[in-house]
Amino acid sequence: MFLHAELDGMPQHIGGVSIYDQSTAPDGVVRFKQILAMLDSRVHLSPIFRRKLATVPLGLGRPYWVEDPDFDLEYHVRHIALPKPGDWRQLCILAARIHSQPLRRDKPLWEMYVIEGLNNVEGVPKNCFALLLKVHHCAMDGATGAQFMNIVHDLSPETSDHGAAPPWIVERMSTARMLGRAYIDAWKKPGQIYDMVKMAAPAYMRIRKGKAEQQFHSLEDKQKTRFQGKISHHRVVDARRFDFEEVRKIKNTQAGATINDAMLTIVAGGMRKYLQSKGELPEQTLVAGCPIDVRSPEERASGGNMVGFMNVGLRTEIEDPVERLAAVHEESVSAKAYAQAMGPKMMVDLTDVMPGNVLSLALRAASSTGLAEANVVQNTIVTNVPGAPMQLYMCGAELVDSFSLGPLLPNIGIFHIVYSSVQNKTGTITLSFTACRDMMPDPGFYAQCLQESFDELRDQSLG
Fold it and tell me: Is 136 a catalytic residue?
């Protein structure tokens, strides 16, 4: 789905920016060649590093992963610097520009940028460096990303030794073998479709029963905002960081509420303030699409991408932040019940059986005819990505700050990521966003709206 949803100007990779204090490194400095050497010693620990897409001739089958015989680590890892004065705004502008560029399909689908010159970023020590990572969403989702980041970090300033890498075996696929594989996959489709249809009937009955018993409700009247429309090639990014314990105390004021409910309430308040300032706030609630990890316990270590969606009403029509938190909690409970009745893997199974060229053609047709803009499914995406619950280091440098980057989807011009982790030895929650620059020309103002939303919720919840 994420591969074929990649339209012109809408790359489908995820990523993030991490900032490191190199004063904790053994020599007080981390050199680019040290980062290269560390990555080279660990590329065997994740298939993402060295595998690329193999395309079946004439599009007769779905692309699949193969080892890249021409893998070159130094192509994927680049060394750049911010222009002076090297402040937060320049870092966000650079991150947005890099993130707006698609990844090459003939290479392993990731890039890493080591960025120096962060001498005036408020709140971080002098002489820090940043690392920007891009990985295609078809190769990795948020859950896999957390595992991936653990590979390139250590738990102390001492760089650990992961042992000798096993022999690297590259299997070259001939055209005949690729077509044979596609032929075998085609024979599996009828059985997969039958299994999906067999699951659809019970799902329909569960949804009917759930509606009748008022276990959940559908969000049918979705409102159009400035973030619904044609997505440009240009991006903006920004982030705000909050204390984890403060967010925990906020959610504890509402019985049954979760951290995610509190962060959705903050996003709702930020969007409400921003749209209200433009005179564009709809009378009815905005809706957030929330990705959910649909792996079974047995699939946790499988990697790759396995994500479903649920729609949550943000209750942006409610001005009082405490009342909004209670309402968002109710919406979350309803959305989870609906997703459970539907079957969390339904969308994954649907895209699995649908021929990729059909999905790609449908998305392009909807985009070119304006059909995507006419049908509002969600106003924004809000995804929760758990980070490491302990302090991390890269080549001895302490991780002191980070924020995540997400992809924009057709007709959804703003993407929020909630990232919880330990940074600078403190539990933090970072709320970052990626948006279309044409839809949001003032990202700094929206970031301030999110900060004010958090401040109001904290002050009124905790007194």
Answer: no
Reference 111, options 97, 126, 127; nearest CA is 97
Checking if the pLDDT of 256 tops 70, the result is yes
**What does the mean pLDDT of the chain come to?**
86
Contacts by residues 21-25 (CB-CB < 8 Å, ≥ 24 positions apart): 21/124, 21/125, 21/127, 21/128, 21/397, 21/398, 21/400, 22/127, 22/128, 22/129, 22/396, 22/397, 23/125, 23/127, 24/157, 24/393, 24/396, 24/397, 24/398, 25/157, 25/395, 25/396, 25/397
Tell how far CA 368 is from the center of its chain.
Answer: 26
Tell me what percent of the residues of the chain surpass a pLDDT of 70. 79
CA distances from 141 to 14, 45, 270, 302 (A): 8, 17, 25, 12
Active-site annotation holder among 4, 76, 137, 329: 137
Q: Taking Cα atoms as reference points, which of 72, 2, 14, 96 lies closest to residue 441?
A: 96
Comparing 80-94, 317-331, 339-353, which segment has the lowest mean pLDDT?
A: 339-353
Residue 157: predicted pLDDT:
93
CA distance 305 to 172: 24
Residue 232 has a pLDDT of 95
**How far apart are the C-alpha atoms of 77 and 403, rounded to whole Å?**
19
Domains of the chain: 13-162+175-180 (3.30.559.10), 189-388+404-462 (3.30.559.30)
Structure-token pair, residue 149? 């980041």
Query: Residue 237: pLDDT band by 50, 70, 90 thresholds?
Result: very high
Burial-class residue 351 by CB neighbours within 10 Å (0-12, 13-18, 19+).
middle
Average pLDDT over residues 172-201: 67
Q: Cβ atoms within 10 A of the Cβ of 358, count? A: 10
In this prediction, residue 62 carries a pLDDT of: 76
The predicted pLDDT at position 296 comes to 52
pTM of structure: 0.88
Alpha carbon 456 to chain centroid, angstroms = 27
